[in-house]
Design brief:
Length: 513
């Protein structure tokens, strides 16, 4: 409280001083010729800021650690751990951790991207930058609303513009309707003959690639509605056919650079390089068993033991839901075939590097979603062909992590030939591959959303003592308790209207039971 009072007092003093110290030459004397103004500010910096912030917080991976790793990865049984504070592995509620994404995303992602969209509005020289900003804004908000449901959207980040400091929580259905509109309009409006946005950390301002990104983002958002509004989902899919990403060359990723004066790091791997995570966060038993069952070539590059051994026969996933308590049945030593924690498989050295890229959206996701649409709705072409394309892309996309992680296309083609598409189990095959792919992207947020949409792959919940969900896999993050104090009227209305309650068992709008 003293800190805030001091800042407030300094502001009052400064305003009083300036008011009493005005002269006829005030503007000339008090204008810094090197300062940014509406006339000389380059909004491309806001694009770079938004893109970088989307990969994780500047505050030592704050929300990435908690929301993506501690919760999403373990709930989806892609990673597993016995570290006590990794609450997601056991379906325990840590309200500070589930609030983390909200608390970071609004100031670090929403504010700059809203500023970008507003600053470039109706300015011909920023035509494409404006549309890219709209796409970034839609992607940023989709993740927020997928995690929490009804959230501030239409008024969020606009305190400066509209003087709205306590934004209302908008219905997720309304948010999705606007997100879909924004993605479609922005993608159509991108113009290869107009400006090439500087500061673009994904594509270097290449507009044709951004168009394919936009249609792929539209596909992903549209397919989120398959349970709640299948007709609308089909309509969206029909709009993107033939316009989505065409190969791994279209993958959106941000390359981190740990050299120079302003290094950026991969936030997932910043956490996984530290302790106790490095030695105690493992690939899950479910994932490793799936890869072993089909002789998947990805196992040879993604997994190692604590001593760095990557021998295929030695790789073993850790079961979810155990701890280091020493209590029989709960302690990891009670797990069948327990080899010692050091001999469970962890993410390999090819991935866990500070300068590894963060993948944002991929061709493999696009093709697997089109396969889902084809199998589910009978549209978008051949489910088998899209599945083949998606599977091969998901196996061969990893070269940007490390040259040694690259798997030859011939190997992927041979794997597909040995494991061909089966329409009888098509949706399970498609979404199991999506699950594996998002694991190797380390985009566990996306997998949690896709699993809630499809229920695939089938996961067996853990039943850890004292869990907060009656031994069911969580489906939503509750609202931050801080909102009850800072935005109480709007918070109370949203809090009381969550389907299933404002807790880990509540559901967002599109997650229809």
């Amino acid at each position: 409280m003293k800190k805030y009072f001091l800042k407030y007092s300094i502001c009052i003093f400064t305003v009083s001083f300036l008011a009493n110290g005005c002269t006829k030459k005030f503007d000339k004397i008090n204008t810094d010729p090197t300062a940014y103004t509406q006339a000389n500010f380059d909004p491309a910096y806001l694009l770079t800021t938004s893109q970088l912030a989307y990969t994780g917080s500047f505050d030592f991976s704050y929300e990435t650690w908690r929301a993506n790793l501690i919760y999403s990865s373990t709930m989806m049984q892609q990673l597993s751990t016995v570290i006590g504070y990794w609450a997601g592995d056991k379906y325990l509620l840590n309200e500070a951790y589930t609030a983390a994404y909200w608390q970071v995303a609004y100031p670090e992602q929403v504010k700059p991207v809203v500023d970008l969209v507003e600053f470039t509005r109706d300015k011909d020289k920023y035509k494409n930058l404006h549309q890219v900003g709209r796409l970034m804004k839609a992607m940023i908000f989709q993740r927020i609303t997928d995690l929490y449901g009804d959230v501030p959207y239409f008024d969020a980040g606009k305190g400066y513009y509209n003087k709205i400091y306590f934004p209302k929580y908008d219905k997720q259905q309304d948010i999705y309707n606007d997100i879909l509109k924004e993605i479609e309009e922005a993608t159509v409006a991108l113009d290869a003959a107009a400006d090439k946005p500087a500061g673009d950390a994904y594509y270097g301002g290449d507009i044709p690639t951004w168009k394919r990104f936009g249609y792929t983002l539209l596909l992903r958002a549209g397919m989120r509605l398959t349970k709640i509004d299948p007709a609308k989902a089909q309509t969206i899919v029909q709009k993107v056919i033939g316009k989505t990403m065409q190969s791994n060359a279209d993958n959106a990723l941000l390359k981190h650079d740990i050299t120079g004066g302003r290094p950026t790091v991969n936030r997932n791997f910043q956490v996984l390089q530290g302790q106790p995570e490095k030695d105690n966060v493992k690939w899950s038993e479910k994932l490793i068993n799936q890869l072993k069952a089909t002789n998947d070539p990805r196992l040879a590059v993604i997994a190692e033991l604590n001593n760095g051994d990557m021998t295929l026969a030695l790789q073993k996933g850790m079961p979810n839901g155990y701890d280091f308590s020493g209590v029989p049945g709960r302690d990891i030593s009670s797990a069948p075939g327990y080899p010692g924690v050091a001999n469970y498989s962890r993410p390999s050295k090819y991935f866990v590097k500070l300068n590894s890229p963060t993948f944002i959206l991929t061709y493999a996701e696009s093709e697997l979603l089109l396969a889902d649409a084809a199998q589910r709705f009978g549209i978008a072409g051949s489910a088998a062909e899209h599945y083949k394309n998606g599977l091969i892309a998901a196996i061969t996309f990893m070269t940007p992590y490390d040259a040694a992680a690259g798997i030859p296309e011939a190997t992927a083609v041979a794997y597909h030939a040995a494991n061909p598409y089966n329409p009888a189990t098509g949706l399970a095959m498609i979404n199991t591959q999506y699950w594996i792919h998002t694991a190797t992207m380390f985009d566990f947020y996306e997998e949690w959303s896709n699993w809630r949409r499809t229920g695939l792959p089938v996961l067996t919940p853990v039943n850890y003592p004292g869990n907060a969900t009656n031994a069911t896999i969580p489906r939503r993050f509750p609202y931050p308790l801080s909102e009850a104090n800072t935005n109480s009227t709007n918070y109370n209305a949203a809090h009381s209207s969550v389907s299933g309650g404002d807790n880990l068992m509540g559901r967002v709008w599109w997650d229809k039971p």
